[in-house]
Amino acid sequence: DQQVKQNSPSLSVQEGRISILNCDYTNSMFDYFLWYKKYPAEGPTFLISISSIKDKNEDGRFTVFLNKSAKHLSLHIVPSQPGDSAVYFCAASLGGSNYQLIWGAGTKLIIKP
Amino acid sequence: EPEVTQTPSHQVTQMGQEVILRCVPISNHLYFYWYRQILGQKVEFLVSFYNNEISEKSEIFDDQFSVERPDGSNFTLKIRSTKLEDSAMYFCASRVRGNSPLHFGNGTRLTVT
Questions:
Q1: Is B102 in Cβ contact with A101 (below 8 Å)?
Q2: Nearest Cβ partner of A97 from B44, B98, B103?
Q3: Tens place of pLDDT for every residue, chain A, 113 residues?
Q4: N vs C: which end of chain B shows fewer Cβ within 10 Å?
């Protein structure tokens, strides 16, 4: 049961360039999407989110795009910095006051100097 | 910045033993969660807790698992009789209200031998 899929296990990007991390989902009932970043030996850290009523949300160097018809979202990081090297998880929620998050498998982003 | 703290960082136990994983959520947060990540696999939801009771739990969270908020600050996960397959990173998370992002602790690595 892979409701949230991150098909790229890893991605390598040159410092200063744009990093694009992709995420696909299958459940059209998801109404809230989040990106988390995780360093080794640490818990996931919230990065940015988007509600299903929007198609774009921007926060500094980070922008999340949502394409509901394609059931696809992406995280853009520009410009990429060495500290961005981490595992990035896409997560989706069915909403409500509890909402358990359904997680993707993660994409390891490596920023090359 | 306030953070979720988890102890211990690493717990080794023998199969069949009981373990208690401890978490101190952020003080003004009202919703509490446990997630786990088996090595090389996805982050999986275990349970959510609100208003001193379980509000949602996954299939993983069977009768061997229980949660408690004994004193208004700690949030514990107990595994009554550990199995080898319980070996994983266990993450505690909390959030202030129903649709705000989760804040995660750094996790407890549980190793069952």
A1: yes
A2: B98
A3: 569 999 999 999 999 999 999 999 999 989 889 999 999 878 899 899 998 999 999 999 999 999 999 999 999 999 999 999 999 999 998 765 445 788 999 999 999 99
A4: N
